[in-house]
Amino acid sequence: MNLFKALSATILGLFLPLAAWAQSPYPLCENQLNADFNILSSGWSRDVKQQQFYNKQQTGLDANDLPALEESWSFVFDDAVHPRSAPAITDLAVFIGSESGLVYALDTDTGCEYWRFQAEKEVRTAISIGKIDGRWAIFFGDQAANAYSVDAKTGQLIWKKSVHAHPYAVITGSPVLYSQQLFVPVSSMEVKQAINPFYPCCTFQGALVALDAKTGTVNWQFNTIEEANKASYRNVVYQQQYGPSGVAIWSAPTIDIKRQRIYIGTGQHYNAPATNSSDAIIALELHTGKKIWMQQTVSGDIWNPSCLVQILSANCPDGAGNDYDFGAPPILVTRADGKDVILAGQKSGMLYVMDADRQGRILWSKSLGRGGILGGIHWGMAASSEHVYVPVSDQFIPYLLEYDDSPKPGLNKLDLFSGELIWHTPAFFNCEKILGWGFGCRDGLSAAITVIPGAVLAGGLDGVLRAYDDKTGNVIWQYDSKQDATDIAGNTGEGGTLDAAAVIATDGRLFFNSGYGGIMSVGGDAGNVFRVLKKKTE
């Protein structure tokens, strides 16, 4: 592991991309995108229920195929430490965003470039693709809270829409395209500003915005906090404080086609007072945004990063909570008995199973980890009609937090009906330890996961992609993504931590980003490579 790179990325990643790699001119594809697309994967998960559980027809892969995989091609991002955008994949092109705000259309088979589009800020969201009024378009959001529609064949802007007026609003949760609408979750980086004792914390309030996919017109907006934000007390350096604030939506929403509903998971408050909409699963009417029900699992969770460092804690509220938001999308699944349930994994390490027909009533819950500000259950789970698969991060943040319980990082399989634990496989640690806690390389499972026939694909914080046997939990295959890569332009990059979006399995291939550095990753190993694995040719 390159310690200098990890240290540099951690120190600078909060403020600007680390200019560690200079990109050579990238070869353009000889042909153009003129034919219709066959969509192989679109959005955060391939279906709007966010299940991440796929059959052989959908993936072209099962557990037996994994040992035959090798790198088909890779793409090296320029000036990146944490490529986070999940691609939309078609038979012709892969569409993916970047830390620099560039969105690329790359040939699915070779990696050559069809076009590139420059967004205003970094694109962290997954890319969605669809045909709107006869025109193929891709959709995504950026870190300036802009939603975009771009022509998928040419890379020309169709429309751009600012979905929130707050100066620190961002789109981190992936927009979902459904029924000619784009549902855009809004979160915020104002929470980081609270570290400054002289910042008047805080005024952002989360939202879900429904846009017309053809025009970008706002159809409706749901605000996660009903109460108006107003001045409250002053902190110890006499800066005015405001609330209620926060309750961001960090993950993709989930669509319930049968009930014509949309489900969202919310985050913590940034400052007092607390409301009942933080750390909650909320059900809305799909076409109006009207709230139907809300199930809060942790009350009074008011937290911001100033609570981590005593000398900078002027904006830390009294009785601060634990930052136990829902970072993973809710999963809607029909059990084998025909009952629809909603699965919610929380950064507290708790898994909840809710009744879709009884106002989100909790059917059962189970603690699977110690929890923490980096999870617990962090980015995403997977589910079938009989089982739920849950990765646990449980990351230790050195010198900042103390825990009473021992961490339980690893992968879990549970019975969907009873919550019985079928197997638990502890996370591995395939890297050197420095200062006793593994700077730049960690052992949890923070990224979302993907289930293919016979195997669970889970990217580790140590940079290793592993396949776990569906029946036993044993590791049956692994690929170390930290190795160097050279793309078709001759650009050389380095892989690193696997985090955020799940590996995409489709058309007999695996597609994923490698690298998750920067200060907000708390020591994650920086990287700048998008990898494609394919079966070896005979």
Q: What features would you describe in this structure?
A:
By secondary structure, the chain is mainly beta. A hairpin with a 4-residue loop joins strand 23 (340-345) and strand 24. The longest helix has 10 residues, at 3-12. The strands form ten sheets. The protein has a five-stranded antiparallel β-sheet, with no helix packed on it. Strands 11, 12, 13, 14 and 15 form a five-stranded antiparallel β-sheet that branches. Residues 1-22 and 433-438 have low confidence and may be disordered.
Structure summarized in a few sentences:
The chain has 538 residues and is mainly beta. Strands 1-3-4-5-6 form a five-stranded antiparallel sheet, with no helix packed on it. Strands 11, 12, 13, 14 and 15 form a five-stranded antiparallel sheet that branches.
SSE blueprint and pairings:
Elements: H1 3-12, E1 39-41, H2 56-59, E2 69-76, E3 88-90, E4 93-97, E5 102-107, E6 113-118, E7 128-132, E8 135-141, E9 146-151, E10 157-162, E11 169-170, E12 176-178, E13 181-188, H3 190-193, E14 207-212, E15 218-223, E16 230-234, E17 240-243, E18 254-256, E19 261-265, E20 280-285, E21 291-296, E22 331-334, E23 340-345, E24 350-355, E25 362-367, E26 382-383, E27 387-392, E28 410-415, E29 421-426, E30 450-452, E31 455-459, E32 464-469, E33 475-480, E34 484-486, E35 492-494, E36 504-506, E37 509-514, E38 529-535
Antiparallel strand pairs: 1-3, 2-38, 3-4, 4-5, 5-6, 7-8, 8-9, 9-10, 11-13, 12-13, 13-14, 14-15, 16-17, 18-19, 19-20, 20-21, 22-23, 23-24, 24-25, 26-27, 27-28, 28-29, 30-31, 31-32, 32-33, 34-35, 36-37, 37-38
